[in-house]
Amino acid sequence: MIRITVLYPNTEGSHFDMNYYLTTHIPLVKNRLTPLGLLRVDLEEGLSGAAPGTLPPYWLIGSLSFDSIESLQKAMATHGEELIADIANYTNIQAQMLISQVVEPIEMPMPMAAVAT
Fold first, then answer.
1. Can you say whether residue 46 is alpha, beta or left, with left for phi > 0 and alpha for psi between -120 and 50 degrees?
2. Pairing assessment for the beta strands 96-101 and 2-9 based on DSSP bridges
3. pTM listed for this prediction
4. Which of 73, 60, 66 is CA-nearest to residue 22?
5. Residue 40 half-sphere exposure, CB side, CA atoms within 13 Å?
6. What is the three-state SS of 24-74?
7. Which of 81, 72, 56, 70 has the alpha carbon at shortest distance from 5?
8. 44-87, pLDDT tens digit by residue?
9. Domains present along the chain, CATH in parentheses
10. Which end of the chain is more exposed for a tag (fewer CB within 10 A), N or C?
11. Helix (H, G, I), strand (E, B), or coil: what is residue 94?
């Protein structure tokens, strides 16, 4: 599985309109990209940094999953310009993007306490 991840850093003076993002931008993304191979959308809203009470380093991290790099490239070639232009409607942040391949998780052994019960 191939994923494009978009990160919105929480920097001084930045704003992020979560309502617009969830009610307008994400439905637009799904509408445009699902016919071109979008399989899944995952969204993570930042709550805090590693230390309690600190600001989150990111407002939001969003991931779009496709079955192949070709599907992702076709989807972005077709609708990427429109979707990227919409970013200005909900934030003043310069988004960071990463294209990656999903790696299978390593199964963790069950703790001995759980096995004994």
1. beta
2. antiparallel
3. 0.84
4. 60
5. 12
6. HHHHHHHHHHHHHCEEEEEEEECCCCCCCCCCCCEEEEEEEEECCHHHHHH
7. 72
8. 999 999 998 899 999 999 999 999 999 999 999 999 999 999 99
9. 2-103 (3.30.70.100)
10. C
11. coil
